[in-house]
Amino acid sequence: MKTTSGFQKMKSSGEKIAMMTAYDAPSARGAEQAGVDLILVGDSAGMVVHGYDSTVPVTLEDMILHTKAVRRGAPDTFVVTDMPFLTYHEGTKETVQNARRLIQEGGAHAVKMEGAGNVVDSISALTSGGVPVMAHLGLTPQSVGVLGGYKVQGKSDEAAHALLEEAKEIESAGAFSIVLECVPKQLAELVSKQLSIPVIGIGAGKDTDGQVLVYHDVIGYGNGFVPKFVKQYSDVDSIIEKAIAEYVNEVKEQRFPEEQHTFTMKEEQLKSFYGGVK
Ligand SMILES: Nc1nc(=O)c2c([nH]1)NC[C@@H]1CN(c3ccc(C(=O)N[C@@H](CCC(=O)O)C(=O)O)cc3)CN21
Ligand SMILES: CC(C)C(=O)C(=O)O
Ligand SMILES: [Mg+2]
Prior knowledge:
Layout: H1 4-13, E1 17-21, H2 25-33, E2 38-41, H3 45-48, H4 60-73, E3 78-82, H5 92-104, E4 110-114, H6 119-128, E5 133-138, H7 144-147, H8 157-172, E6 177-181, H9 185-194, E7 199-202, E8 210-213, H10 215-219, H11 236-252, H12 267-276
Parallel strand pairs: 1-2, 1-8, 2-3, 3-4, 4-5, 5-6, 6-7, 7-8
The protein binds 5,10-methenyl-6,7,8-trihydrofolic acid, 3-methyl-2-oxobutanoic acid and magnesium ion.
């Protein structure tokens, strides 16, 4: 299993890091077997699995349950779990308690948290307690209410400078990696070069140290809206719809189940059974 030192080596050698989300055992198994370097149990689960319109309603219990399932499906892959909305903002004591549950109960190897500012203290507290932390800057979906929508971040000179400074603070606080979401590619490249820890991009261009995408986006499963930065490598929705429509049709037309899907009783047993029926 690759771990934090492995990801650091990948950055040094220029080998790109391929990260993907997973939320349950089968998605995690697929990711592991296909060679994903690390799995993120993202709070995007709230949107792609539970049908909420943001990540805000996701709870710690939800993330523990998803993490347990992912670990069972991908026992040999490093698993990072998102700390949900407002579970790392009431001081380091509560942050440590909540991260402890994701790790001890969920089985996460590391946790991820969005933003800088006060969050930097939480990152220090966790890393000094032995918990690897991944940070997340740029478009931070848990702050959708403050950001006023899912928009590209760091576009102005001022915002770009602020983001670079935050990234440096996060590195100093001991984070092992940073996710950079929805920023101009030139800013993402600069941050990746200025930091020694791996920068994983999503909607941040090709010059970061790695990429992350949501499982459902990669395979084309269950999406209405697809962000510009997504490449769908399959159209699983159409495969699912075709299979289910065929099933429904065969039931209606009595072509399913067939002999091979059916259990039968032996002749003698049948006789005594029928004989016993009143
Ligand atoms: N399926 C899915 N994929 C994701 O990548 C994802 C989620 N869900 N849920 C949690 C967050 C939310 N994310 C999002 C959602 C929407 C946009 C979006 O609408 N982007 C616009 C850019 C708008 C602009 O130009 O500023 C786009 O057109 O892609 C971006 C990231 C990323 N995460
Ligand atoms: C999109 C990634 C970075 C994420 O935070 C999530 O899936 O929740
Ligand atoms: Mg997330």
